[in-house]
Amino acid sequence: MEKKLLHLTINGEQHELYINPKKLLVEILRDELGLTGTKRGCNTGACGACTVLLDGAAVKSCSILAMQADGAEVTTVEGLAKGSKLTPLQRSFLDHGAFQCGFCASGMLLSATAFLREDPTPKDIKEGIQGNICRCTGYNSILRAIKAVAEGKYKEEGR
Amino acid sequence: MIHDFNYRRATSIKEALSLLEKYKDDYKIICGGQSLLILMRQGLVAPENLIDIKKVKELDYIDYNPKTGLKIGAATTHREIEKSPLIKKNFPVLAEMEKNLASIQTRNWGTIGGNLAHGDPAGDPAPILIALNATVKMASIERDRILPLEDFFIDIFETALEEGELLTEIQVPILPKKTGIAYQKFNIIKNYLGMVSVAASVTLAEDSEKCTEARIVLGAAAAISLRAKEAEQMLIGEKIDAKLLENAGKKASEECDPVSDIHATETYRRVLVRVLTTRVTGKAWEQAKAAH
Predict the structure, then answer these.
(1) Same domain? B224 vs B244
(2) Which residues of chain A lie closer than 8 angstroms to B105, CB-CB?
(3) How far is the C-alpha of B145 from the C-alpha of B139, rounded, in Å?
(4) How far is the CA of B113 from the CAs of B39, B60, B74, B97, in angstroms?
(5) I want to staple A48 with a disulfide (CB 3.0 to 4.6 A). Which of A41, A131, A147, B234 is the partner?
């Protein structure tokens, strides 16, 4: 097996590394770069916990070879807040108690971020998180949190 | 655990074809990999060489011409098809099918060509594309060839793609006049693979209400996306009514060949085929009557 050079821009920071091409994007993020905010759940593309943004589009990082993300911009949950300034969605998730165990939260946040960027006032919020499973909240607090942002109740901080 | 493989990335069709030729003894093509990587992780597929065509830009396009129809590059993502204004306007049933295919994340990365080449009889796009009389274009170093999509599927996870061949384009002709088209998949969890799906197109004579052409295609009801040809024959040449639709549904449930698995028993699938065939074909017929 021949190692391959991978270029990634992750949360605005450039990375170059040699990897075994069989590595999945989630493995590179977590195991090579220590970005453990991205969760490895089912590892079969079903649960959405590993969702990241690839050039702005939500994808499941367990279902993409890292080599296929070569040259792309990756946003993980660590890249959402700017310093201590949380995004409107993150603040709304906190205010609405949209966490219990928190395992699904990063995937939920990234799916919702992409979904609201595409359509800031969506008719059906459930559609935006259809690919993300939550085992504890019953989804309602998550839906309320996203709805509050869609209704403009949260503004960007300090900009 | 994914086995080690030799990774090669193509950035053009030409490069992809020469890689296929070079590694012809043992390769697998990956595009979005949304199905393939699951099989590789389970160790069911362990290619020596993995040829990546995801970055072949010339396979990523949606073209529509009112005379020749729709052409979709094989590496076009499901999400691009779902969102395409051209497809929403001219083939809304295709956009609707895509919207109900898996999750947004999967649709953002998975491709139409990859889905078809995977050859899963429960795959969403094949039945509706076959009902639309779609053809697929395949390229190899020696030649290009075009095949009706219904002849592309040979057996479960087996397609007509030969060694060295690459699926490059999906072609959908313009619908004939007085044609209606409908599709429905049945599942318990929205956007999961269908337990059974049915797509139908019905064409009526321009000067009478007789059916001149019918295509009824069943998903997850056999080893391949299956045309219910006997059911179709019951409709052709006839004036369709509720009774005939019911009988066509019965016929389709007899001529399919579903399996029993954790999702549904064979008997249950046959019942679904009967009910859905009647409903979906009825819907296509209603649309055909209203069409110009």
Answers:
(1) yes
(2) 45, 48, 51, 58-60, 63, 111, 131
(3) 7
(4) 17, 10, 4, 15
(5) A131
Give helix B242-255 / helix B266-290 axis angle, nearest 10°: 140
- Which residues lie below 8 Å from residue B86, measured CB to CB, with a gap of 6+? B62, B64, B70
pLDDT at A159: 46
A88-150 topology per CATH: DNA polymerase; domain 1 (1.10.150)
Q: Which residues constitute the domain of residue B147?
A: 57-172
Instruction: Give which of B49, B104, B108 to mutate to test A binding, by max A Cβ within 10 Å.
Output: B104
In this predicted structure, what is the pLDDT of residue A142? 97
Q: Which residues of chain A does B193 touch, with a Cβ-Cβ cutoff of 8 Å?
A: none
pLDDT digits 0-9 by tens, A29-81: 999 999 999 999 998 899 999 999 999 999 999 999 999 999 999 999 999 99
CA-nearest residue of chain A to B193?
A46
Tell me how close the Cα of B36 comes to any Cα of chain A, in angstroms. Answer: 9
| Contact check, Cβ <8 Å, A21/B50 | yes
| Residue that finishes a domain, picked among B153, B172, B191 | B172
Q: Could you give the number of structural domains in chain B?
A: 3
pLDDT given for residue A38 in this prediction? 98
The residue extents of the domains of chain A are 4-79, 88-150
Question: In residues, how long is chain B?
Answer: 292
Q: Provide Rg for chain A, Cα atoms.
A: 16
Q: Which residues of A112-142 are buried (b: 16+ CB within 10 A; e: fewer)?
A: bbbbbeeeeebeebebbbbbbbbeebebebb
Model pLDDT, residue A158? 59
CATH code, B42 = 3.30.43.10
Give dist(CA B107, CA B84) in Å, integer.
13
Cα separation, B36 vs B110, whole angstroms: 10
- Which numeric CATH code is attached to A4-79? 3.10.20.30
**pLDDT mean values, one per 10 residues, chain B (292 residues):** 96 98 96 97 96 98 97 98 97 97 97 98 97 98 97 98 97 97 93 94 93 98 97 98 98 98 96 98 96 81
Mean pLDDT of chain B: 97
Scored b (16 or more CB within 10 A) or e, B103-142 reads bbbbbbbbbbbbbbbbbbbbbbbbbbbbbbbbbbbbbbee
